[in-house]
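User: Sorry, folds how?
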Amino acid sequence: APAPPPARHLFSDPAEVEALRKNLLTWYDRCKRDLPWRALAATEPDADRRGYAVWVSEIMLQQTQVATVIDYYNRWMQKWPTLQALAQASLEEVNELWAGLGYYSRGKRLQEAARKVVSELAGRMPRTAEELQKLLPGVGRYTAGAIASISYGQATGVVDGNVIRVLCRLRCIGADSSSPAVIDRLWDMANVLVDRSRPGDFNQALMELGATVCVPKAPLCGECPVKQHCQAWRRKLFGNPPKVPDVEDCGAGDCPLCPPATEPWDSSLGVTNFPRKAAKKPPRAMRTATCVLERRGCHGAPEYLIVQRPSSGLLAGLWEFPSLPLAQDLKDKREREELADHLQAWMGRPVAARGLRFIGEVIHIFSHIHQTYAVYSLPLDGDVTLDPALSPSRWVTEDEFHASAVSTAMKKV
């Protein structure tokens, strides 16, 4: 069995825990950002509406910056202020509002879960983290804890990227912070620390600290309300711990939470020695040929053909210009020929490869894919009859294109 972590990695002193809670909440009351979901959570008397408001914000904030989310959140809550309103919306409407926010499956799962609450749970949101995670698709451990603590006052901790960083610095946790063993220990810590009388505020305070003060690079340690509890800050001030450890220090290389011996403390990094993360795999490279088919509309304005992507996988259900994934090493001539064959299937008539005009390349970085779009243009004379057996498709004006559920990558194209 792995060795248990020494006491210095834990929050085992009740007096220290209480002082940390008090200092953090005092700072939060004074310095917290004015965010629309916080205002709703603080003023909405109806528990289900409050839970829904927090839920939407937490889903949108996954992998997305606060500044980006605010506008999307306000428009979403204006259009669908309740679970019942969202449950009645179409996936197309959800995708249109979500367009540009990224990670599009989030919106789809949010709507699916709203429909489940209305149809199977009588419109009543689950009240505990355990029930939220169990009953709502797309709601994981963190999101469930956030909703339960902020909306319903359950004294349960939360662990997201910001909390991981704060806790790893507070307790000099240098093992791989993405490993299951470390994540489990961080959840244990979060559940010990959470303030029992103000769990939602405490969890938001901990996340706020990581987002605004205890940031990944150049943290503002001088402004930190809990620096006196931070072992990484003390180590930065006073150097390495003594060679002879006391009873609470780590043993010789058998601590599951200490940095590996091959990665010693780097004094030039200070508190940013923590957290340690496993090296990320580089995103895989993909190349796609995309063609903007253009015709003259009935009112003389140009129109463009867009087609709908499959209902699962990357960018599921969104609209795009006709596109074809390519092998990385295709020559220019062969790339044109493959795209021409692909377009011929759509149009039901031959397409000459030489008629495709190369416009340029667009690069878009997804979380795990480095995508290059080779963009071509093909103006058409007269009407084109599309095969109804293929994916849904439609002709749109430029304004209609931008109002459709299209990805940021397609807007670049």
The radius of gyration is 26 Å. Residues 289 and 324 are 5 Å apart (CA to CA). The chain has two domains: 7-238, 284-412. The beta strands are 284-296, 302-308, 319-320, 323-326, 357-365, 369-379, 393-396.
